[in-house]
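Annex B. Sample input.
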Amino acid sequence: MLNWHKPMQIIRSGVERVRITESRFMPIIKNLVFGIAINVVFFGSLELLTRFVFTLNFNFEFNVGTFRQYHPTRTFSLTPDYKSGAISINSLGFLGPEFQVQSPPGEVRILTIGDSVTFAPLPDNYPRILEKQLNQQFPNDSIKVIVAAVPGYSSHEALDWYDEFLHKLKADITIIYLGWNDMGELHPFGLRYKTEGLYRETTFIGFLMRHLYLARVPYFFLGRIERYMPVDLTPLSEHQEKILAEFYPTHYENNLASLVQKAKAQKSGVYFLSLPGLITHSPTEEELTRMHFPRNMRKHLAVYKAVYEKYLHVLKKVSAETLTPIIYLDELIKTPAQREIFTDTMHINHEGADRFGKYIADQIKNSVAAKILQTRLERSVVGSIFEASRSTDMNDKALNIPSP
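Annex B, continued. Sample output.
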């Protein structure tokens, strides 16, 4: 006969040990779970707060009264109908007065695509001066200049905007002034979360920075420290020369070429503006105090100059390959006295806007005259066809010929 007493004793003993173990470790497990939950809530809240304070995407500018609003593909756009001080955004989200999407008969439409250098100074930026100057030169015709510029836009956002809406405007002439924000962010020494995958190899640190704003906080404070550093006037190191030799702003080339192709497909005459600034020529000691440098260049003038030359080379290359003329504003800033128009590296004051606008008007006046002539001929042909049709109808009625 089997004796079940001993096996049952072993089972009871095992169960008792499990209970003792549970009683020992359960508080530890509970505390661990509670600690993890507290940390998730704390760091989650800190992440949200960081996004609110340090966001680079302007998500939180949406509906808080600023002139820029959140945009799903371009990060931000101008807020329609925003009015404050010298800033006046129309109902279509463009700086300036209202206009129709389809240009009125006889109007020559000029589209100026750009960033803050095109947007400012207000209220008379270079597009406004350009419009006034051309209308003075052609007083019997209507010339409209549309400011398609948003501070902070690079060639990426400009191309996206063109695909989404700007192409609908069917401009007769398109002026493209882009590149400062591209070289400011997308250079071989740029912030990891912006350049990795494009001009740097992807790293785990870069992955964290792209997805966690908390990981970007050190960059924020380093940027503030960098801003107050003295300008570094030393030549490039061998390491820097090697990195810069391998760098080529492919994205800039592709975006500019695409913009030109799409504009010309609509029979728009296209012009580039060069990239005039304090970095264009050798800056004086006083000009160095006005300059601001792209992040992570550590205010190294030789690095900035080398990156600038790379972008300028691409601009000239796209110009040559697409037969798109460049208006060289560099001609207006050869001397330190002429460069007093710059408030920083590339932004200009009202005198600069006046000078740029008038110079551009002089450079494109022949194209404008050709567009005016073309518009008049088209209107004349349409008018002749209308008159001929009306005359035929009147003759048919006089002869009592029924309409088909």
